[in-house]
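@channel sequence for tomorrow's demo:
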Amino acid sequence: MTRAIVRGGMWAGLVLWCAGCASAPDTHELAQDAVDAMGGADALRGVQNYVMRGGTGSRSRTGQPVAAGQPDPPAKLSNVVETLDLAGGRAALEYDLEAASGFTQHRQEVLTSKGDKGVGLENVRDRPLAAMSPSGLFSWGTQNHPSMALDRSIVTIALAALDAESPEPPQERELAGRMVPFATVTVTGETIGLYFDPDTQQIAALEATDTETMLGDVQARYTFSDYRDVGGVMLPHATAIEKGGEHYAAVQFESAAINDAEAMRVFDIPETAEGAVDHAIEQGADYSPVTLIKVADGLHFAQAYSHHSLVVEFPNFLAVVEAPYSEAQSLTLGKLLAAQFPGKPIRYAIVTHPHYDHIGGVRGLAAQGATIVAARGHESALRAVLDAPHTNPPDVLAGRRNAGAATGGLEVFDDRRVITDGGRSLELYAVTGSPHVEPMVLAYVPGPRVLFQSDLFFPGTGGGTSPAAEHLLQSVGALNLRVQTNAGGHGGVAPFDELVKAVGTAGGN
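structure tokens (generated this afternoon):
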């Protein structure tokens, strides 16, 4: 098949392009023309950093469906700012998120450094700034992590394509309903596919394997459009991302700037956070702030930055209720527990519900040998997360599997599961009818009469009624649980009466 296209540079004029034709441009020539169309190699090499501002769009694959198998409703993104420090290897994402449920949040995730050490800063409105290792960052922005925005920077990709090896000659492939030149290049061991716009010679899209925290290895396509001149460099102001063949994120920016010194201030470490940053660096890789707070004998609340767990001590092992947020958080928790409870392995990690922010640490706990315990209605979601390959790069679970080491598996239960050992028990109930998720697992420790639940009520925050909180109270009453203390995946630990008063009901415990 041949197509007439107009090309610039050394290919100026009308050129018949076809796969395999002697006159067809090779991959290097396609890359050279793309770089020229963006302003030239010297101009691109002069881009030390750039910032995209005023973005609006959407993010799918947030892992928030009400029930397993249902569509994952997209969240709205607004006030999006993406800051990429190409020279320093730093990146920041800032945005307002509005989920389909009505939940809203302003978030900023910053991948920065102190000296030669990388560090992550997470800043969520109405919460204190948190410092962690880079692996501890969690994002609902246009990417799963700021580093992905850095790795897929159009400036970096265009320049890398100039000198990259190309294992195969260019061919034609379909993009947005038309056939365009396509070529693969190898950049630092990674194969990247590039689509070239035959009219503008710019890079229209790229394909690569992204390794997502929850999705694992997925074929990703980034489609670029709305190229505009920014200080002599043409930058795309619109990006649409597909992962695994489904919409993942899209953003349209209003403006951009290159080599903006003021924009780089986002990477400054606030004086008030210096101590926390130093501590995070001292802890090494895979650190996220977690503190163990004793609730009762053999029972500890693992208070983290925003998503918490409950640790139940048995005579011969430990059980952790909830493995949220990130692999770094689960690995930090594992180190704390190994120090406080020497010789007692984490045998079980219980999942309350499979929303991504509440299961981001399941792979990390499975890597430490814990059996992941989930309600049968959550089996498909959890199995997909645990079985997904992770190669770019491998996570801890993938690394242990590759080394042939033992790892934890998945155990499912129907309505009720009781874990017992030496007179201590942990009761798990899969309750139905919650407006938040179907089903929802409640964990109850009968001795000290402690309940652990996530997302339904935030203990210690003053309460506030909601349909989810009302259903929680009804469920506790229906199960005839004699709850004295309420511990939350969010919030803290407080008397159960706080929930009773908030809902305005006299019963339930």
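heads up for whoever presents: The chain is about 20% helix and 40% strand.
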